[in-house]
Amino acid sequence: MLSEKIKQNLKNIISKYEKKESAIISILHEIQKEKNYIEDSDISELAKLTELPYSKIKAVLTFYTMFNSKKVGKYHIQICRNISCHMAGAKKIEKYISEKLGIREGEVTKDLLFSYSTVECLGSCGTAPVIMINETYYENVDEKKIDEIIEKLKVAK
Amino acid sequence: MNILLNDNFDLKTYITNGGYNALKKSFTLKPEEIIEEVKKSGLRGRGGAGFPTGLKWSFIPKTKTQKYIVCNSDESEPGTFKDREIIHKNPHSIIEGMIIAGYAIGASKGYFYIRGEFAREARIMEKSIYEAKEAGYLGKNILKSGFDFDIVVVRGAGAYICGEETALLESIEGKQGKPRIKPPFPAVKGLYGCPTVINNVETLASVPYIVIYGGENYSKIGVEKSSGTKLFSVSGPVKKPGVYEIPLGLSFKTFFYDWLGGMKEGEELKAVIPGGSSVPVITAEEAMNTKLDYESLQKIGTMLGSGGMIIIPKSQCMVELLYVLARFYHHESCGQCTPCREGSGWIEKTLNKILNYKAKKQDLDLIVDISNNMMGRTICPLADALAMPVISFVQKFREEFESHIEGNCKICGK
Description:
The complex is a heterodimer of chains A (157) and B (414).
Chain A: H1 4-15, H2 24-35, H3 40-50, H4 54-63, E1 75-80, H5 83-87, H6 90-101, E2 114-119, E3 131-133, E4 136-138, H7 143-156
Chain B: H1 11-16, H2 21-26, H3 31-41, H4 53-58, E1 68-73, H5 82-89, H6 91-105, E2 109-114, H7 119-134, E3 150-155, H8 165-172, E4 196-200, H9 201-213, H10 215-219, E5 222-223, E6 226-227, E7 229-235, E8 242-247, E9 250-251, H11 252-259, E10 269-273, E11 282-283, H12 284-288, E12 291-292, H13 294-299, E13 308-313, H14 318-332, H15 338-355, H16 362-374, H17 382-396, H18 398-406
Parallel strand pairs in B: 1-2, 1-4, 2-3, 7-13
Antiparallel strand pairs in B: 5-6, 7-8, 9-12, 10-11, 10-13
Helix pairs in contact in B: 3-6, 5-6, 6-9, 14-15, 14-17, 15-16, 16-17
């Protein structure tokens, strides 16, 4: 179900673009920001409200890797695994996060707070290894920093 | 040129440092005079392809129809993180460059397309555009010149391919980012079917300087066909990784020792990828004897690309690094063209076999053969972007690949 806030904001977002269709990515970002993932029923609802074909929205959703079509944690951690981060120990970072949270890639912790995925270059190679939690970058991370970040997020909930 | 010298973060500081004077000067010139200055400067596209910027602008028809300027800030090429730095330190130089470009080609609207992950950077640009609008540098009748121009920030959502200019246009239009068949080129039929110029962030940020000091003066920086300064983003185990602005033609050796401080304690240089992950790798020896400009790097069989320089130490296994790159290109292939979609998957699988000591000797020739059959046979250069690293890695570090086939890689410890 789309929230009232999103529904009311639709027209506003669409008005920024020259064509209705061009607003799809932006709308999907807004939905994801609110509920962290986008369900099939959201697409159907969006298609009805915007009078855009379901297939067009679904095609965009599945093409772009930032959109989650499966449930993720409140804090979704993206671990960069590309060349510079790889050389700086990205594999170890993944292993550490996986063991610390007791989940594998794609799983969500029991308290629904955390999940993680490995991703391609985040464009911050000079401060590798890099992870991204929701929309925030954390650079030059190591085990100690990860401990601190996760503890902070647990307290913040 | 100093794209990064001052922390021109807010409008006030930017103006104190001479910001928007280039725009004022532009309005005293005819659009074609600006294009002429940019041509004279020798500025080449800083996103990777190195196409002459002035020439690109001159392809736009002189009609009065709707035209667009698009700034490509999709920065996703592994090893490249220079545009992000410009956004952090000097966002108004990009905006000023976009307005001048718009005036030169007769476009009243600009799109700033930024990769989805750069949420903070998108906010910085939105804030800076707001500041510029409030001060009258954007909007209707800018500085009473009669010229209207506006910029809209559009965020992507995680797709390397959207850095390819026609895929980027598809993405702005709200579709899957699949490159278009060319011709028609964007200068004729671009965004929403209208004539469009797509320039990289660094390219546009260089434009105000050229307008103020003149194309000829700009062309005096650097070397002959590689004029100006270039940002290099350096990653890997050097003492001082980061983003540096250097005059083109500087020797790698000087850059490496004097700017980057050499390798970190305990590491030894083995190889360098000079311009982002898709350009051919060079050995330490080749690197030490080259200069950093378009022609010098081309002469030794590689490219300047985006300036995303990746430093590889002896402690890293080349087989594993190439596997990491192949996995990336396979993941990012949009799937339109068979040679790229199938070839990248096949290479990734075969490299995985080699990496895990399960391959036969002929598998090594196989990945080179697949690469040769991918090159130049697709709509966009993503296939070449994988083929070039594969061919160069295998050619220059063949013994490391052979050790994985024989089952005794010293670096991986087997």
